[in-house]
Known about the structure:
mainly alpha; 5 helices; 0% strand
Amino acid sequence: MSFGDPNNPYGQQPQGQQPGYGYPQQGQPQGQPGYGYPQAPPVQQPYGGYPAAPMEMPGGVKAARVMLWVMGAFQVIGAIVSFAGGAYIESQLSDAGAGSEASSLATGMVVVFGILALIMAAISFILAAKYKSGGNAVRICSIVYGAFIVLGGIFQLPFGLVSIAIGVLIIVFVAKSDGAAWFQRQRAV
């Protein structure tokens, strides 16, 4: 006499056994229920549970990288102009007979802006160079750097419109989902 498929809930069960309720009985092996469907193996996901990241840098991230190089070049040019302007202001104030204190204060302010421009240029170049191998910290620093560019452009209006546009584009291109996937991708060890 055949009792049918043990996984069939409607099939006949052998006499003297309950259909898989409670603790396993002596006649029923442990780990195999008397009915139900067999369990499927778990679905495998990539390492870390994230979907596979793109292997080529997305176009928006490439554009943000180029904009960082361009902003760095503009800031180096701005620093050179600032240092030359500081020397020019010093010579004009000393020729006009202004006090040495006023002359050195004005020159010092212009030189500080030049040094600040060089620091921002260095940050821009470092961020642009790290786009190929950097992680999420490079992405976050690029967003913060873009915000500083926008803020600096506001203080330079109307000439700062280009800086504002570039800063906003850097923020948008890096903050998009494909940019986030690029910076959170798995890297070869």
